[in-house]
Amino acid sequence: GSLRKVVKLPEGEDENEWLAVNMVDFYNQINLLYGAITEFCSPHSCPEMKATDEFEYLWQDNENYKRPTKMPAPAYIEQLMTWVQSSIDNESVLPSKIGVPFPKSFPALVRQIFKRMYRVYAHIYCHHYPVIRELGLEPHLNTSFKQYVLFIDEHSLASGRDYWGPLGDLVDSMLKSD
């Protein structure tokens, strides 16, 4: 079947609920993919959180890192995954009880989470693709990322032409091929 169909909001489904379910699903997929290559991504091998040299990502949150902070890729990814997990676990952000409304800020948070999780895909593609291939995970990475791209496209979560940065060509081909 088409991945384009998989990412569409099902009829009668609440949009925030759909965004939340998919955010958690992609978080889990990224966790598994990165977990498979974590031994190949160390502060020594990846001293900066980069995709390509033009795309270095600095970490910032509202608690421990109030200013954009340079850090090794594994530290950045750990901060990111912890931050996403704490959003997922926070009832005021992601209510688990039926009928409890999502906060007004939820769509903006979802956009920020998707933008940041994209950086893990970008880092894996640009720095660890040979290992992914060796481990036989190439189909999983490509399918996961394509679904991610289509989901972001379908729900207008990307902002600006340069959103995809170093993977722009790959993203363009994925959007055209489905």
UniProtKB/TrEMBL annotation:
Coiled-coil region(s): none
Pfam families hit by this protein: Mob1_phocein (PF03637)
InterPro entries linked: MOB_kinase_act_fam (IPR005301), MOB_kinase_act_sf (IPR036703)
Keywords: Metal-binding, Zinc
SMART domains assigned: Mob1_phocein
Record-listed Zn(2+) binding positions: C41, C46, H123, H128
Protein name: Maintenance of ploidy protein mob1
